[in-house]
Amino acid sequence: MQERRSWNYGVLGLKIKPSIPSCWYLKAESRELLYAQSSAVKMGDRAIQKESWGRSRASLGVVATGRKLVWASFLCSIVLVLQYLAQPASADPVLATSIGQCNPVALQATNDSKTRTEQCCLPAPKRARIPFKLPKVHRLRIRRPAHELANDVVYVNKYNLAHEKMNALPPDDPRSFLRQWHAHCSFCKSAFLQRRLNNSTTGYPLQLHYSWTFLPWHRMLIYFHEKILGSLINDPDFTLPFWNWDNQLDDTAGQIPQIFLPYKQFARKKHGRHGKIRNTFLYEGKRRNPNHMPPKILPLTFDRKLEKERANWTHSQIRHANLGQVYQMVYNKVSAREYMGGPYNTNSNFTEVADVNVGESGGAESLHNTAHEWVGNLDNSAYPDNEDMGVFTYAGRDPIFYSHHANVDRLWHVWKGLPDNITRDGHRIRKDYDDYDFLETEFTFFDENADMVVVKVKDTLDIHKLGYKYKSMREADSLWINHKPNGTKASYKRSEVVVSISNTIGRQPTSFKLRRRAPTAADLPGTQALNVQQLSEGVVFEHVRVPEYMYVRFDVFLDLPTATAETDEDESAYVGTFTHLPSGVMTVEDVGQKKVHVRNDDMYRTLNIRFSTSLALKALGITGWNTEITVTVVPRFRPHGYGWNIKGIKFDCLRQEFT
């Protein structure tokens, strides 16, 4: 397998992708030579410059620059290298649409049924598709935190009424609650095929997680969900509440919001304090973990295996751990690739083994997974798929899903305004991708008029242009922005460290050795950094083969080979957690449910998993570049359910990369 990254060579006016294995890289002198040559002249064709890496080229031509190349030998050597590196492109802008073939969504097999599916296909549009137009904004609608709206009788009743009206729409109406749920189920569980902008299919399933499509697609999903709800109650100013689970300042912010739970009714005149609140649709029939009801607070480091051991954690301990997790997964991600995820590859098949190419989640997606898992039903034989929230297939069936994603959306907006105290330069601006393939990617949604609307990603990036904003949570946000992890003291002798020579993440903590190097100018192309000092350093586990139906989680530490499952995540050496939510999750431990053996272990997703390391290295006092560090993986796999018999997860290599 090969890395799907592209390089720009301005002198030749080319955009290509390397076909060499990404675990191998050119010597620093060679990279510097190529970059210096490419930077010597400016591109004469601005249209070519606008093209993104990953765009197909029928031919490779030399751009007229108006400048003579003094050393012809340099040009010859570059051409030879480019001939070696060039390969067909594979990251064209994708068209995510429900038009065309739709397949049932597969669920994990159980002892009772080996071929379980869910039908999530959407109705065909009754009229021709229309292009999305940014609304005329006279005043911004304000989304407010759910915990502050709990006692707002007018709002809660209105919110519930809108859902009741949505639920009452006929099944063939794309605005119905059924079809809102199905939209997430189908687009995020490979019911459709990928399509290019000319509507031709790539032949691969469509999956809008594990890439840079995750944030903009979910933003527009809840945007249209909100618009439909508002139209059903004739309130154009209606907004969704956001579940402010990153907020460690307000005691109830991290609980499952009261809006989505039954209210206690007090027998008093005028029906008591909450007597007029009617929110039955927001909780009746919703499948949530009964063990995680208030006053329980969502632990963003949630680990099912350690839940009993951490049951006695104080509010202060949970609060501190949560601040550390948001700090790592939001603040510590300075580049678009780190926070938003990697490019969407139109040759990617996320569900089959045959020559799959990789996906790559960003910090935003990784952080959000924990809330899904925690709210979903765990260890309940009646709900083998972790439904509702714990699985892509059913998450959209719970109204809390849209409130959860509103906070994910809010954090994306906040992230772009955070200062850069990460890079050595200290002045890098956090911003969205400016890549052509990203900006021109299109999604289709049904709007409040039941029309199918075609939305380009470039129109989704500014929430104010979309007509809404979030109530400022500046004081609560400042807690995780200014958080300081606990200092990590090394308690080992480097000579005694046992490192693995096998590229396998097993069921016990495993350490790997990684040799670092200094960044060079050749690392700049493809990033948005203005100079080498603005580059963010990271480690990448490349081509990790994750079984599709297996729950996978592991934590990663730098230069702490003594790390175990009990090691506090709020340590300077901790650089993040990876969580994989499968299609169906078998975690049932009761005697009525046997373990499910993996028979078809070639059904896996191949992912690049990235961890940002700049802050951790600084905190650990590792300032030199030419050093060797240990990268320790602490697995938190489940002993029961699908994949219990898998002893290890393979990956191709561990490498350093700058973004």
From TrEMBL:
InterPro entries: Di-copper_centre_dom_sf (IPR008922), Polyphenol_oxidase_C (IPR022740), Polyphenol_oxidase_cen (IPR022739), Tyrosinase/Hemocyanin (IPR050316), Tyrosinase_Cu-bd (IPR002227). Residues 398-409 form the Tyrosinase copper-binding domain. It comes from the Eukaryota. GO terms for molecular function: catechol oxidase activity; metal ion binding. Keywords: Copper, Disulfide bond, Metal-binding, Oxidoreductase, Thioether bond. Pfam families: PPO1_DWL (PF12142), PPO1_KFDV (PF12143), Tyrosinase (PF00264). Coiled coil: none annotated. Its cofactor is Cu(2+). Belongs to the tyrosinase family. This is Tyrosinase copper-binding domain-containing protein. The lineage of its organism: Eukaryota, Viridiplantae, Streptophyta, Embryophyta, Marchantiophyta.
